[in-house]
Amino acid sequence: MAKKRRSSAKQIPASKKNWLLRSLKWLVILLVGVILADLYWLSTIWPDWDALAKGAVPESSLIKDYRQRANINSQLPMVRWNPVELRNIPHILRRSVIMAEDGRFYQHDGVDFKAIRNAWDYNISHMQVRYGASTISQQTVKNLFLSNERNLLRKWHELILTWQMEQRLSKDRILELYLNIAQFGPGIFGVQAASYYYWGRPVWRVNRRQAAELAASLPSPSSNNPGRYTPAFAARVNSIQQRISEVLP
């Protein structure tokens, strides 16, 4: 009688199988706990979208954070912030900021996948992280509710809030919020405060060059702004002004 052939595959011992099942169970429980904790945290900062869609521009999380640091560190300039309605912000300034920061602002739904692909291709080909692809909507959410920390969890929160904001607010309102809370220098938040600080005039009186200078400040306002005219800043201003002249002669 032929002997039964032994299976070449080793059977997993019952004790080890039970250990794997228990580990998987606890991993699922841990994952669910993390998700619930994250959802709870989001609920603590979840805005009243109806209130945000109209009325006065609220003080952002970044402005509050800076104010607290300035109260502790006397070497930091105090907060300058004076929000204005979008209708009081010149069209040339709005276009300059959009061109500099998010050229497809009125076309995308909060995340610009085309810009992400272009930034990725450039950074990979040049082996350096030079360009990001955060939209004006994403930056507005970050400034209003989150922080400048760079981690995946903050980015995840940013995407959720951006998606919801795009559903509940108009593009013009998002732009109004952004232009009033973006930083334009140490302690200088919003285009109105920036215009008064750098040129002593209300924002509705800025000219083309000044509009380009404010737009050029946005990537790194603490080191590049109309008060610190570095060569890199001047080149960015000229580039923005040149592109604007092609669209608005």
* Principal-axis shape: elongated
- State the CATH class of the largest domain: Mainly Alpha
Annotated CATH topology of the largest domain = Penicillin binding protein transpeptidase fold
Total number of domains: 2
Could you estimate the helical fraction of the residues in percent? 55-70%
Percent strand: under 5%
In angstroms, what separates the terminal alpha carbons? 98 Å
Tally of helical segments: 11
List the SSEs and their pairings.
Blueprint: H1 14-45, H2 49-52, H3 61-72, E1 80-81, H4 91-101, H5 113-126, H6 136-145, H7 152-168, H8 171-181, E2 183-185, E3 188-189, H9 191-199, H10 208-217, H11 231-247
Parallel strand pairs: 1-3
Antiparallel strand pairs: 2-3
Helix pairs in contact: 4-10, 4-11, 6-7, 6-8, 10-11
In short:
The protein contains eleven helices and three strands. It has helices at residues 14-45, 49-52, 61-72, 91-101, 113-126, 136-145, 152-168, 171-181, 191-199, 208-217, 231-247, and strands at residues 80-81, 183-185, 188-189. Strand 2 and strand 3 form a beta hairpin.
Give an account of the 3D structure.
There is one protein chain. Residues 126-131 have low confidence and may be disordered. Strands 1-3-2 form a 3-stranded mixed sheet, covered by helices on one side. It is elongated. The chain is an all-alpha fold and 249 residues long. It is 59% helix and 3% strand. The N and C termini lie far apart (98 Å). The protein has 2 domains: 16-45; 48-247, Penicillin binding protein transpeptidase fold (Orthogonal Bundle). The relative contact order is 0.13. The chain contains 11 helices and 3 strands. Helix 6 packs across helix 7 (152-168) and helix 6 crosses helix 8. The longest helix has 32 residues, at 14-45.
